[in-house]
């Protein structure tokens, strides 16, 4: 029995609340159980310097965790002078995941910056961030279209992310912290609404995992991602 009493293929309760930031062009407060992430999308009417003159835009992301998002206070990374390696890796993952489903030339020479701030952490912060960031990005694009900044819809697909792992010998979906901290295998899957794989991150903490376990984790991830995409569609009225 899982600590949360969930079935092996059962997600935590997930909610996607849109329009939670007054000033951002798009925003979403995403909750995966007790993991809460505040996502905003901000439009900048210029491309990054290295892209200027190329006729296409960019989507980038920043990720951070509030000091008391966890059981003990963590120091703000701004006071350390630079983001940690973990933070840099997660924000690059979020950016890659979103760019996989957007037509960058259709944005024109503009940048959309996604900010994902973890308000409370209980495992799966990066997967929650990607799932909520898609909603914020969608609403930013809708804001642009409503003002005739762009005339097409550059989002080509949905993208969502979920964690899976092997805990006490059993493959399970959507690990909370109690499971994540003891898992023999921990993996994150980023999948599109049409079933494409954007990224897989998998690590054996104990013994190496088998091909069969990897395929079972992928199967579970598809179950979770399909449910998350359905919630995204419901949230944005598709």
Automatic annotation (TrEMBL):
Q: Where does phosphate bind?
A: 86, 124-126
The enzyme's E.C. designation: 2.7.7.56
Report the top EC class in one word: transferase
Q: Which GO terms describe its biological process?
A: rRNA 3'-end processing; rRNA catabolic process; tRNA processing
Keywords recorded for this protein, A-Z: Nucleotidyltransferase, RNA-binding, rRNA processing, Transferase, tRNA processing, tRNA-binding
Give all residue intervals belonging to the Exoribonuclease phosphorolytic domain.
Answer: 10-140, 159-222
Q: Report which superkingdom the organism of origin falls in.
A: Bacteria
Free-text function comment from the UniProt entry? Phosphorolytic 3'-5' exoribonuclease that plays an important role in tRNA 3'-end maturation. Removes nucleotide residues following the 3'-CCA terminus of tRNAs; can also add nucleotides to the ends of RNA molecules by using nucleoside diphosphates as substrates, but this may not be physiologically important. Probably plays a role in initiation of 16S rRNA degradation (leading to ribosome degradation) during starvation.
Similarity section:
Belongs to the RNase PH family.
- Extract the NCBIfam families matched here: RNasePH
Q: Which PANTHER family match?
A: EXOSOME COMPLEX COMPONENT, EXOSOME COMPLEX COMPONENT RRP41
The protein, known as: Ribonuclease PH
